[in-house]
Design a protein that fits this description.
The complex is a heterodimer. The radius of gyration of chain A is 14 Å and the shape is globular. Chain A has strands at 4-7, 10-14, 19-25, 32-38, 45-51, 56-59, 62-67, 72-77, 86-96, 99-104, 108-113. Chain A is built from no helices and 11 strands. In chain A, 0% of the residues lie in helices and 61% in strands. In chain A, the strands form 2 sheets. In chain A, strands 2, 4, 5, 9, 10 and 11 form a 6-stranded mixed β-sheet that branches. By secondary structure, chain A is mostly beta strands. By secondary structure, chain B is an all-beta fold. Chain B has strands at 4-7, 10-13, 19-25, 32-38, 45-51, 57-58, 67-73, 76-81, 90-97, 106-108, 112-116. Classes of the chains: A mainly beta, B mainly beta.
């Protein structure tokens, strides 16, 4: 079936450094790619998303790039802060049974050390 | 806008009992809602798609007779875990999309922590 692969599974950086998380997807029809931040025991929080008609999107310290040809997209966090520490999930839509469903990557545990 | 609530936030039950979880869209009508399950330190796995007025669509490997889904109104979907067992202990999260939106953004409920003793 369709899947989304995410790397790395864990990422440790020093405060102020950049962090990059990469995902690949298999369904060429996917057209929406959100990124979520999840803190322990809480719901996923949308931090940025990108649609298939755009190659790059930026929101302050967070940016996402999309390469439709290669079917991969990446999350870039600059000037990391300790409060960025969390688990980050990428996702991609698939159309199945007439519905637009989200398939999630396995997650990346980001630790930002002061 | 686009707020989704879930109730209860956590529940502890004995093995063999059934548990109902409610998912509500508070400020919009959701014709489609999604149910996910998340085990500790794992990703969100889509269990089923709930559509108002019709039967839910289950993902491969999810037992429809064990996880009963009812989407009786445009603002409420329920998930009932029947004859729960310890291996059903998990974090259950629902989501909903705004109708007539093409961008597929989903709004997540706060989740329900189920513990089966």
């Amino acid at each position: 079936g369709e899947n989304v692969e995410q790397h790395p599974s864990t990422l440790s950086v020093q405060e102020g450094d950049s962090a990059v998380i990469k995902c690949t997807y298999s369904d060429s029809a996917s057209n929406y790619f959100p990124w979520y931040k999840q803190e322990l025991g809480k719901r996923p929080q949308l931090i940025i998303d990108i649609r298939s008609n755009v190659g790059e999107k930026k929101d302050q310290r967070i940016a996402v790039t999309l390469n439709k040809t290669a079917k991969h997209f990446s999350l870039h966090i600059t000037e990391t802060q300790p409060e960025d520490s969390a688990v980050y999930f990428c996702a991609a839509t698939i159309i199945s049974g007439g519905y637009n469903k989200l398939i999630f990557g396995a997650g990346t545990r980001l630790a930002v050390h002061p | 806008g686009a707020v989704v609530s879930q109730h209860p936030s956590r529940v502890i039950c004995k093995s063999g009992t059934s548990v109902k979880i409610e998912c509500r869209s508070l400020d919009f009508q959701a014709t489609t809602m999604f149910w996910y399950r998340q085990f500790p330190k794992q990703s969100l796995m889509l269990m089923a798609t709930s559509n108002e007025g019709s039967k839910a669509t289950y993902e491969q490997g999810v037992e429809k007779d064990k996880f009963l889904i009812n989407h009786a109104s445009l603002t409420l979907s329920t998930l009932t875990v029947t004859s729960a067992h310890p291996e059903d202990s998990s974090f259950y999260i629902c989501s909903a999309s705004l109708p007539d939106r093409w961008d597929n953004e989903q709004f997540f409920g706060p989740g329900t922590r189920l513990t089966v003793l």
